[in-house]
Design goal:
364 residues; alpha+beta; Beta-Lactamase; Helix Hairpins; Heat Shock Protein 90; five-stranded mixed beta sheet; four-stranded antiparallel beta sheet; 8 helices; 17% strand; elongated
Length: 364
């Protein structure tokens, strides 16, 4: 039947047929349209050019809202409801195009049909991305609930057991037993506090609720104020080598979340001394946290920043600290990476963009 149709109707029919079995992705629809137009009109090549490109040929097609031939090329605007999505740009490889007015009219009609297909494919891609994001969020939610319940169960059971013992038999216990229970209670409640804060941070990262507020501040002040809260009993294990005059512009809360997790990770899994260094050296601000522990096994490095992973499965912790640090670093446009320290140990490096005028200056 298509062979008996006039050429104009046959070409439009064939173009419709090659995309009717969709839905296809935007890339697939564009490939099919370009292939069909190239074959039907004998072009050497046909490519899609989006509407943000400005050339004399495209400006002419945009202005006239129809196919235009110039300098051995044809530009066909893809129009949908008066909106130009882009152009099909075709040529015959340096040969005379031989385009007649009838062909330009037909190509203009092809542009209208193709524009509808491209718009539908864009909508399909947007819907697919939305569905993928919903699936990802749903998977993260299930993973979050499963891990939270698993990780919280043990310390909660210990705290409850200690509280029950003190409540029911507190008067019968010896002083040494009470001290032991108090120590265990402090340790497990601290673990609960840490895990709860990590889970809350993880929830904020997953939900996209991290609000970035840029301020100018001294990173040395942030680290100095952070250490007593982070490890009050291990201050002697941490050395800070950051110029007190150094300033950066970033989100201070996110900066402290990243650095706090890196220092906590070094104290938990590495060995002292833990050294925190920072400076810009004429470029982006670079902060490193280095320890003298065994470092990270090479085969585990690719998983290092994934959540709920630990190089030593029997180690204490939920495996969330580095994943949270990466999430906060991403939120402020920073890079966070691992590299082995010399002669041994782990080094985590945070590279944070900073303003060109923020060099070390006299401290107020």
């Amino acid at each position: 039947m298509p062979e008996r149709l006039p050429r104009q109707l046959r070409i439009l029919y064939e173009l419709s047929r090659v995309v009717e079995a969709g839905p296809y992705s935007l890339a697939e629809v564009l490939e099919r349209i370009c292939t069909e137009v190239r074959r039907d009109f004998g072009f050497a090549s046909v490519r899609m050019v989006w509407d943000d490109v400005r050339t004399p040929l495209l400006e002419a097609a945009r202005h006239e809202r129809r196919a235009v031939v110039r300098d051995g090329q044809v530009a066909v605007p893809l129009l949908v409801e008066g909106r130009c999505l882009g152009f099909l740009v075709a040529d015959r490889g340096g040969l005379d195009l031989g385009i007649v007015e009838e062909d330009l009219d037909l190509l203009s009609a092809v542009g209208l049909v193709a524009g509808v297909f491209v718009a539908k494919a864009e909508q399909f891609d947007e819907l697919q991305r939305a569905l993928d994001e919903l699936r990802r969020v749903d998977e993260l939610k299930d993973e979050f609930v499963a891990v939270a319940s698993h990780e919280l169960r043990a310390p909660i059971a210990v705290v409850h057991g200690i509280a029950a013992t003190l409540h029911l038999r507190g008067d019968e216990l010896e002083h040494s037993q009470l001290v032991e229970l108090q120590s265990a209670l402090y340790e497990q409640s601290s673990r609960l506090q840490e895990l709860t804060e990590q889970l809350l941070d993880l929830s904020r990262v997953d939900s996209g609720r991290l609000r970035v507020e840029l301020h100018c501040f001294h990173p040395r002040d942030s680290v100095d104020e952070l250490l007593p809260r982070l490890a009050p009993d291990r201050l002697g294990d941490v050395t800070v080598e950051i110029d007190p005059r150094q300033k950066i512009v970033s989100d201070r809360v996110a900066f402290e979340r990243v650095v706090g997790n890196l220092i906590g990770n070094a104290l938990k899994y590495g060995k002292p001394p833990v050294v925190v260094r920072g400076g810009d050296r004429g470029g982006p601000f670079r902060l490193s946290v280095e320890d003298r522990g065994p470092g990270v096994p090479p085969d585990f490095v690719p998983q290092l920043f994934e959540r709920f992973t630990r190089a030593d499965p029997g180690a204490h912790g939920a495996g969330l600290g580095l994943a949270i640090a990466r999430g906060f670093a991403d939120a402020v446009g920073a890079d966070l990476a691992y590299e082995p320290a010399e002669p041994n140990g782990a080094r985590f490096v945070l590279v944070l963009p900073t303003g060109p005028d923020l060099r070390p200056a006299a401290r107020p």
